[in-house]
UniProtKB/TrEMBL annotation:
Keywords linked to the UniProt accession: Coiled coil, Membrane, RNA-binding, Transmembrane, Transmembrane helix
PANTHER family, A to Z: UPF0749 PROTEIN RV1825, UPF0749 PROTEIN YLXX
Record carries keyword Phosphoprotein: no
Family label: Belongs to the UPF0749 family.
Record's protein name: Uncharacterized protein YlxW (UPF0749 family)
Source species: Cytobacillus purgationiresistens
Pfam family, one: DUF881
Coiled coil residues, start to end: 49-97
Length: 235
């Protein structure tokens, strides 16, 4: 009886030992699996982080390349803008010069402020020998026209007839001819330009006005706020 009880006690003891060992082995196995899974997760995360860092480096390098390309394009655009500005200035100057030449040739209608000079014959004195000393001659008209051009006149007309770069004026008895057209006195010379400058130039002491008055020419000067001159017709 005692022997059977002892054998039973041994069996119970060994059973408890084996159960404990099994529990320890199972727990160790589970812990090992969890550590492997954690290690695997950590390894995968590191690989993903590395891949993301590599992509970020590539993106930054591409961004720098694009920035450099943008900088080069901006410099090209600045050069183009400078060239366009220079060309625009050249075209503006050409257009301005063309307009001046057309005005000088009498090809366009012009208007603006200016002066109006009137030259008239003086009253003849019977006791004088030469009547030519009391009439306006072409050189009188030339003196006024030259002074007006020197003073910056952009357009000039005589009795409404525009002058050009190749106009000629000749005296033909009591009249003068302008490009073949006869004009009797009084001679009204109109000029477009800076009125104050032209008036001051004509009124200078010892200048054109004084010369004409001393030559028995009746001289009058008037500043006009606007003078209109029509273009010349024909070839």
């Amino acid at each position: 009886m005692k022997r059977d009880q002892k054998m039973w006690s041994n069996r119970v003891f060994f059973s408890l030992v084996f159960i404990g060992l099994g529990f320890i082995i199972a727990y160790s196995y589970q812990m090992a699996n969890e550590e492997n899974e954690v290690g695997q997760i950590t390894s995968n995360q590191w690989e993903r982080d590395l891949a993301l860092r590599n992509q970020l480096v590539e993106v930054e390098e591409k961004n720098r390349e694009l920035q450099n390309e943008l900088h080069d394009k901006q410099e090209d655009i600045q050069d183009i803008e400078k060239n366009l500005a220079q060309e625009e200035q050249v075209y503006y100057n050409l257009a301005e010069d063309t307009e001046k030449y057309r005005m000088y040739l009498g090809k366009v209608k012009v208007k603006g402020q200016g002066v109006q000079v009137t030259l008239e014959d003086s009253d003849y004195k019977p006791d004088e020998d030469n009547v030519n000393q009391y009439i306006v001659h072409e050189h009188h008209v030339f003196n006024v026209i030259n002074e007006l051009y020197i003073s910056g006149a952009s357009a000039i007309s005589i009795n409404g007839q525009r002058l050009t770069h190749n106009s000629y004026i000749v005296c033909n008895g009591p009249v003068i001819e302008v490009d073949g057209f006869q004009h009797p006195a009084p001679f009204v010379i109109s000029a477009i330009g800076d009125a104050d400058v032209m008036a001051s130039a004509l009124n200078l002491t010892g200048g054109v006005k004084e010369f004409l008055v001393n030559d028995n020419v009746q001289f009058s000067l008037e500043i006009k706020p606007e003078i209109v001159m029509e273009p010349l017709l024909g070839s």
